[in-house]
Amino acid sequence: MRKSAFTRTCTRLVLLVVLTLAALLAPPPPGLSAAGTGAVAPAGEDAGTPAVGRVWPVGVRPRVLRGWEPPATVYGRGHRGVDLAAPPGTPVRAVAAGRVSFAGRVAGRGVVSVELSGTGDPPLRTTYEPVRASVAEDDEVKAGEVIGTVEPTGSHCTAPCVHWGLLRDDTYLDPLTLLPPWLLHRGPSRLLPVLGVPMPA
Questions:
Q1: What was the pLDDT predicted at 12?
Q2: How far is 112 from 156, CA to CA, in rounded Å?
Q3: For residues 10-49, b (16+ Cβ closer than 10 Å) or e, as one string?
Q4: How far is 15 from 190, CA to CA, in rounded Å?
């Protein structure tokens, strides 16, 4: 029995759609790296990003106003960090221990950069802006140590925020990958029953 031209066309169209989706959704080949193509590494693709963060840069669990949006190329459109809601004057803390590699102004904005200890060569570097620095270049900082306060102006956000970035050398990475799951997804504390322990008399 012969298939109609309509049936053959529909079969080919379905096959084309399935193959296109498979090609678009497949992971990149293992030999293709962001460094070799001039692209910015997508979130979570840097196997060398240890979860060394011990605190959020601001607050306890700040609202993320804008997340990590890696650009397709080095100079492409995207968002090279995350914006965290924080009113002016909010203390900004180092997420992990390290050394202040820069504390000053860039294009009118206060910026603090911290090279994180024990994160390889070249080391990971976090950036925070707009921040009025309370530290100086070459200062050693501990995780959770205040490095400055959010400035009232200089933010690119529509609401008051601090921009938190992460780099290894010149490659931007998702700063949220620094936070371990217990800190990133921490919910409210829950008391559990203690079994097998006698009640005090």
A1: 73
A2: 16
A3: eeeeeeeeeeeeeeeeeeeeeeeebeeeebbbbeebbeeb
A4: 51
Report pLDDT for 20.
57
Cis peptide before 87 (omega within 30 of 0): no
Q: The dihedral of CA 37, 30, 72, 50: what is its sign?
A: negative
Q: Which positions ≥6 away from 154 have C-beta within 8 Å?
A: 108, 109, 110, 129, 130
The better pLDDT of the pair 115, 20 is held by 115
H helices, E strands: number in the chain: 3, 11
Q: Looking at residue 148, what is its pLDDT?
A: 98
Taking residues 27-44, report their average pLDDT. Answer: 36
Q: Are 94 and 114 in contact (CB under 8 A)?
A: yes
Q: Tell how far CA 1 is from the center of its chain.
A: 59
Beta bridge partners of 132: 149
- The average confidence (pLDDT) of the chain is 81
Cis geometry, peptide bond prior to residue 130 (ω within 30 degrees of 0): yes
The C-alpha atoms of residue 12 and residue 169 are separated, in whole angstroms, by: 47
Residue 72 is predicted with a pLDDT of: 85
pLDDT bucket at 151, cuts 50 / 70 / 90 = very high
Q: Which residues contact 176 (CB under 8 A, 6 or more apart)?
A: 43, 67, 68, 82, 184
